[in-house]
Amino acid sequence: MKENSVGLVKPKTFHVDEPLHTVSGSVIPAYDLVYETYGQLNADKSNAILICHALSGNHHVAGYYDGDEKPGWWEHYVGPGKPIDTNRFFVVGVNNLGGCHGSTGPASINPETGRPWGPDFPIITVKDWVVSQDKLREHLGIEQWAAVVGGSLGGMQVIQWAIDRPDRLRHAVVIAAAPRLSAQNIAFNEVARTAIMSDPDFHGGRYLEHGVIPKRGLALARMLGHLTYLSDDLMGKKFGRELRDRLKYNFDVEFQVESYLRYQGEKFATRSKFDANTYLLMTKALDYFDPAAEYDHDLSKAFARVQAGFLVVSFTSDWRFSPERSEEIVRALLDNDKNVSYAEIESQHGHDAFLLPNPFYEGVFSAYMDRVAREVGA
């Protein structure tokens, strides 16, 4: 365990014993949210940071579990002396509703049937997540987040927070995100969902009742997703056309990149214990995200009531959520004379760059969060 880590952590569970009326029209009668906290809440509760996770993320943002050497997914950026400095901030990471790491989701028991929700779990949107996360804010006694922070799908949640709860966050940090998915991105998600639903072990989403999981479909979905998270340059430098052995002229795995992708898919399907129905839900939440749709498809109108200051960050090699998509967010904020800072970070790591060490990214992030800390007296 590294010295600049938050150390050993344990998740907590918040139970909401009241119905959530979802955007899709369905009702979840009650639900649990699993979350972790790091650092100390100050006397006036002004130093709290909410971190929203991406598609395959969860509440375990930083630190370690007892007996597990793998740290939280944003260990590089959350901890003592890091951009989100737990010596100054009280940090909250939450597993989204519909997730598969303890929060109520498709693998949870449906109280009406006594069986796993499975495919009957309601479609969840980013707006629904904000509603449920706001319940957690109330539970923690926090009047206003010093900042809500997230990358990718997490960044979309930050945008929705700023629009739907403008007085509940002081700053919004949107990293490697977009105001809505492109048609190409929706297409990628549909291919991933089709891979899962076509698996013979999917059983119409009721695989848990059959004692199986759609491993092949999950692996294929992860292979496709992982491929889109990396840049062409990075894959070229990392693998090139390097062979594992010699050419055999058959359909076995021969190139190193093939071996790498199959390994990533197999690891996700077997070791991560990620629920297939949750994967379907999360990708649909991505597809449906379009806050401007409620404002005549005008993003500038959607941001009119925003009160938070913004930091928007993009990465040069991120072709899935390109810098041009972040610039759309910046322009819409500037149309409303909002306070926004923007950084386009040079990186060869594609969409995954927001998770990885990068000195310039770290510098920009740290400088902005230092400003947040000074404003709230942290």
UniProtKB/TrEMBL annotation:
Binding residues annotated for substrate, in chain numbering: 222, 352
**Coiled coil: which residue ranges?**
none
Q: Which reaction does it catalyse?
A: L-homoserine + succinyl-CoA = O-succinyl-L-homoserine + CoA
Location within or outside the cell: Cytoplasm
Q: What is an example of a Pfam family matching this protein? A: Abhydrolase_1
Q: Can you tell which superkingdom this protein's organism belongs to?
A: Bacteria
Q: Which GO terms describe its cellular component?
A: cytoplasm
* Site, as annotated: Important for acyl-CoA specificity: 320
AB hydrolase-1 domain segment(s): 47-355
Annotated metabolic or biological route of this protein: Amino-acid biosynthesis; L-methionine biosynthesis via de novo pathway; O-succinyl-L-homoserine from L-homoserine: step 1/1
Q: What class of enzyme is it?
A: transferase
Query: What biological-process GO terms show up in the record?
Result: homoserine metabolic process; methionine biosynthetic process
* Broad class of where this protein is predominantly found: cytoplasm
- What does the protein in this record do? Transfers a succinyl group from succinyl-CoA to L-homoserine, forming succinyl-L-homoserine.
Q: How does it assemble?
A: Homodimer.
**Name of the molecule in the record:** Homoserine O-succinyltransferase
Which gene is annotated as encoding this protein in its UniProt record? metXS
